[in-house]
Amino acid sequence: MALFTATLIISNVCASKGVEFFGGASLSVGPFQILPIGTDGAFFLFPLAYVLGDVLSEVYGFRATRRAIYYGFGALLLMVACFSIAVHLPAAGFYEHQEAFRTVLGVSWRLVLAGLLGYFVGQLLNSATLVLIKERTKEKHLWARLIGSTVVGEFADTLIFCSIAAGVIGIETWQQFLNYLIVGFLWKTLVELLVMPITYQVIALLKKKEPTYAPKESDPLHV
């Protein structure tokens, strides 16, 4: 849970930076911009939040994961409040970086709203999808639960975040928006696939070591 919350906080700070790969190239297919590739500064870290969410959901169930999501939501609100206070505190005469500090950590309410809503909806859908699939598959086909929940949760998260935050990080056209949305979704899903062997090992270890773990037979969203 500590790593889960830390990942969310760090990702929300890094996401305020727009990132572009192959900036000197230009390639479009119809309304889709292929190059340059636009994303945000959290692209390399944020998928870990969904990997951790899958581990929590698989081992501890929806109710425990929902509690972790609430704690993470509260931590993000605390981060926003602290950043806002720090930005508005009077700068010392010897401190020369107030504007840079404000630019990096100043609260953009659109970005905050995008991060909070995307995280909240996406993580809940990710967890609910995993435990509902598990109700049918029991202890078999873990890969189906991991991939299925990630596709649903990541798509909802990415769509909500991109729709609200795109303008804040400099995305101005529909081509750029679609590129940002599709690249973000595909990248996060690809990360899930790449780290799945590690996820399998972590889940197996926790199931073996966690004395409270037992397969749930019914009512997966409430047990």
TrEMBL record:
- Identify the InterPro entries for this entry: YhhQ
Q: Where are the transmembrane segments?
A: 34-56, 68-91, 111-133, 145-171, 177-200
Location in or out of the cell: Cell membrane
Keyword terms, alphabetized: Cell membrane, Membrane, Transmembrane, Transmembrane helix, Transport
Q: Which Pfam families does the entry link to?
A: Vut_1
Report the principal subcellular site. Answer: membrane
Topological relation to the membrane, as annotated: Multi-pass membrane protein
What is the annotated role of this protein in its UniProt record? Involved in the import of queuosine (Q) precursors, required for Q precursor salvage.
Checking NCBIfam families in the record gives: queuosine precursor transporter (TIGR00697)
Family statement drawn from the similarity comment of this UniProt entry: Belongs to the vitamin uptake transporter (VUT/ECF) (TC 2.A.88) family. Q precursor transporter subfamily.
What PANTHER family does the record tag this protein with? QUEUOSINE PRECURSOR TRANSPORTER-RELATED
Q: What is this protein called?
A: Probable queuosine precursor transporter
Q: Which organism is it from?
A: Nocardia goodfellowii
